[in-house]
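Ticket #4471: structure output looks truncated?

Reporter: J.K.
Steps to reproduce: submitted the chain below (382 residues) through the standard prediction queue, then opened the result file.
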Amino acid sequence: MTQEIHGSVADGFEAVREEFAAFVAGERADYEGQLCAYVRGRKVVDLWAGTDADALYGVFSSTKGAAYLVVALLVQDGTLELDRKVTYYWPEFAAEGKGALTLRDLLAHRAGVVGTDTGFTLAELADDRQLAERLADQRPFWRPGTAFGYHALVAGALVGEVVRRATGRPLQEVYQERIRAPYGLDFHLGLPASGEPRFRTTQPMEPTPEQRAVLDATPTGPHSLASIAFNRNTPEPTDLACLPNTPLIRAKGPASVGGVASARGLAGMYAAAISGMGEQPALLKPDTVAEFGQFHSVGYDLVARAHKSFGLGFQTTADTWHPFLGAGTIGHSGAGGSQAFADPWSGLAYGYTRRRFAFPGGAAPENDRLARSVHAAALALR
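Returned output as attached by the reporter:
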């Protein structure tokens, strides 16, 4: 039985509702998902199926967008400087030859400390300060600054420690005070107990036979760079798909993967970043958005073993996922299928969440058709 589509769209965005309905009609009967978008600070799409508008989901690495937005704000304020060495803020990071790395290179996934030789416990993965302490002592897996690779489970802890040293406060607190609370965002780095009844447990999907064949053809050893980056080099390897189902992860909100949000929260955060919402002005100036959206690492990602690109922390979404978007689009997808971004050229802020972990991870395939539809409607408003 096809899921009923709920919610509303603004005039001119009727095709987005039709696209969402067509996608849902072809999905499993137990599909749950949400789609939200803003254009220049005005909500234009607010749709959901199989759930309700207030449901919250683990958004995996879409969390990193919130962390990088905090850093962008602090750079804009002058509290952080991109070309200072990380050790200016965090002296212990100099261990094992990491002393020359700048904050700019740290943000661009060029540090080389994607994990540790022996991996992390679940309690450590939930606690950014414990992760940072372990990573400070770790010898990098490539010479810092010479190459890049996705710091999947630790990027938030690395930049979070710089934020903590510079401000005296955890990144999660700065996010709450500067971003989440003023804009009323339904996107939490540390889900309060009152929000737990709204959380929807992530349900992993099994790969199809074709996808399983791809996996079997590209095996990774337990101590490969990819395994280290995804904490598979431990006696109890991390089950990424189920990570948000751990109460400790939700409660502490580690800034790499621990965020809990609705699509409204994801889209709203990026609307706040580039356009503002209601009476609140834009968080970032155009020059700040442009600098953080510039290509900084482009080419062969040593962890993903494929072509990737990053700006300052943010994925360069137009290159990585959706080539129809404007140059300088900032955003970040999540392994469970979530996607969120801001396109300064069209004024579009987009957020999508789903319950089932979409194999093989990253922005779920349907985001391409959904984002394309929203973007076309946004351009038609200009």
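Triage note (M.O.): checked the attachment and the full token line is present. The longest helix spans residues 63-77.
Status: closed, working as intended.
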